Records
---
Amino acid sequence: GIQVEQSPPDLILQEGANSTLRCNFSDSVNNLQWFHQNPWGQLINLFYIPSGTKQNGRLSATTVATERYSLLYISSSQTTDSGVYFCAGGDKLVFGAGTILRVKS
Amino acid sequence: DTGVSQDPRHKITKRGQNVTFRCDPISEHNRLYWYRQTLGQGPEFLTYFQNEAQLEKSRLLSDRFSAERPKGSFSTLEIQRTEQGDSAMYLCASRQTGSGNTIYFGEGSWLTVV
């Protein structure tokens, strides 16, 4: 089955800093999505992005489907951005292990 | 509230007991998914439905687990003869195929087996 690798596993930022999270897939995937899991466990869909680039406020995502990776950019980070970021893809949505982000004030 | 809802949110049960979780997807969503998540891990696929048809069940899912979606609306996930290793958060999600493919998750049902 599809393998999903996320990097980095942990990231600590000072408030206001920018960051890039990466997601690599072992095979071509459809249905690629990014999620943020808050401290209460709720998974919030950030982007559906099988290819190309999308932006939503301070967040943007780029997927290069031919090279089987996707990037999530967070600009001007805020403490409320803290949590775990997951990418997932495929019909069944196979998830990576996540990136734990901590933003310090 | 038009989001995905799950019930109960928390369940503590003794080993060997049966438990059932319910998921109400977003209205009109034809796909419904169940996942399991343990601490420090990403959600793990269990099974999914297209309307009332169960399309796939993970090989990781033992025969103690069963899921149904009898009328293509809400779904139930039952765990029989619970074991301590079943302790996890069980997540339900739904989406409408062919309509942006964005998937929406419920808040999850936390299970603790003691």
---
Amino acid sequence: AQTVTQSQPEMSVQEAETVTLSCTYDTSESDYYLFWYKQPPSRQMILVIRQEAYKQQNATENRFSVNFQKAAKSFSLKISDSQLGDAAMYFCAYRSEGAQKLVFGQGTRLTINP
Amino acid sequence: ETGVTQTPRHLVMGMTNKKSLKCEQHLGHNAMYWYKQSAKKPLELMFVYNFKEQTENNSVPSRFSPECPNSSHLFLHLHTLQPEDSALYLCASSPSPRGPHSTDTQYFGPGTRLTVL
């Protein structure tokens, strides 16, 4: 069974600086998808960024980018120019090709210091 | 309304009560999901429905009974719950897989915070 591990329960960063959230996963599959979701306090979870394992290029979405290391089974999220609105729980998730089940990590709580 | 909505947002019930959670999606999706988010545990998938048919049950106790009358609505009927069932219950929807390399991103509702006394 696949597992996802987020080793940083909490992180903090100064506003306007850059922070990297870590995620590792365990799988024997070669084709899959990886996601970062953001869950602000008392608000719904939204997709931040996704990565297809068959793509070599790292995904980017404005200030959010990933460092996808397939051989190392690592999928970190970099947030540049951090803003107060980035404060949230961040979840890394894995989905097998052809499956619908998302396997989530435990989450990282990100605090932005003004 | 847009996206995925859930009602009620908060629910307190006794162990002998029967209640239902409702989810509605306005995205034209064909797949709907129930997840459980407990404190200090990763989100756990409970059920998956595709085109109104249940396609996954992740070993969920029978005191949780899902219902999907159409592709836009999903219910979770609750009865004789235990205090350890207290959690945030999240509904999600997605377009449904369309073949190889279908990203099929899931969109989440705000959740129902359930407390079982």
